[in-house]
């Protein structure tokens, strides 16, 4: 084989392998989606556990298995990428089990090319939404109409990080981007306040806001939501006095698991607002779907 042909074969090998490696996020998303769907279906349709169900560890185990699957796929993809980089640097074409089979499969190669283009477009749109959302929410008015309240900590299921890690504010505005845009369009600039959840910010939101999204975990007491982990603090409907919620309040969304166990009480103390809650385990994915499919419509339907 001539030098030119060897160069082409070398480039062709690494080009195909790079496309195959780009499929790792696709497989991670697919596996995560399947595991989450099975977990969601089992918990919400078949098992329907109570808040004090001793078998709740099964749900935690399913989440752990999903996380381990993602970690294994990510680790394998990173090692394959590292082997490919080192091979290219040394002028070699290493064979990587499974990945090399994908790399030499024409159908998967074409799919990987389309997937790579889709990812690039998606990343560009996410960057735009993140920047735009951060700009829209950087200077809320004195009396915002929409409040997004999120807990400090409680995002990474590792004891050392559970109560200490909180995502930066721009990720919150990105997650709630449709609501942010709709509120700014419906009520004008400065209409959205993104704040850490506390007893004070929740009470302030009740007095000033028309729309409130409480992004929190459920408290130890069924029907409550948690706003602190160290120490553990939670909020119940009984913690509100009659009439404490402002008459302007129209919609309150509780993401907390089992907050719906006291939905009648929440409706009573938050009247005349509509209350949406879950009398079961709730999932981040279903909150995301609601925000991106129904959030903007809900905002635009409010006075």
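Sequence proposed for the structure above (303 residues):
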């Amino acid at each position: 084989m001539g030098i030119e042909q060897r160069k082409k074969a070398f480039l062709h090998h690494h080009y195909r392998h790079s496309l195959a490696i780009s499929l790792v996020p696709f497989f991670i998303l697919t596996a995560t989606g399947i595991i989450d769907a099975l977990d969601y279906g089992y918990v919400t349709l078949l098992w329907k556990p109570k808040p004090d169900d001793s078998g709740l560890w099964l749900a935690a185990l399913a989440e752990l298995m999903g996380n381990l699957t993602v970690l294994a796929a990510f680790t394998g993809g990173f090692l394959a990428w590292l082997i490919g980089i080192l091979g290219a640097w040394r002028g070699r074409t290493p064979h990587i089990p499974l990945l090399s089979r994908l790399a030499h499969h024409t159908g998967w190669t074409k799919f990987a090319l389309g997937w790579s283009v889709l990812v690039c477009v998606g990343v560009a749109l996410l960057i735009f939404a993140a920047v735009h959302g951060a700009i829209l929410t950087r200077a809320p008015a004195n009396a915002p109409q929409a409040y997004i309240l999120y807990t400090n900590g409680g995002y990474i299921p590792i004891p050392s990080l559970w109560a200490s890690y909180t995502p930066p504010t721009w990720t919150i505005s990105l997650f709630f981007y449709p609501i942010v845009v709709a509120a700014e369009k419906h009520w004008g600039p400065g209409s959205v306040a993104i704040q850490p959840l506390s007893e004070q910010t929740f009470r302030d939101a009740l007095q000033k806001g028309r729309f409130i999204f409480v992004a929190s975990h459920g408290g130890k007491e069924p029907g409550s939501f948690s706003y602190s982990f160290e120490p553990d603090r939670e909020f119940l409907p009984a913690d509100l006095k009659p009439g404490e919620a402002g008459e302007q309040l129209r919609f309150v969304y509780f993401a907390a698991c089992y907050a719906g166990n006291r939905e009648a009480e929440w409706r009573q103390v938050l009247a005349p607002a509509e209350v949406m809650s879950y009398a079961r385990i709730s999932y981040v994915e279903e909150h995301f779907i609601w925000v991106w499919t129904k959030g903007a419509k809900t905002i635009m339907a409010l006075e």
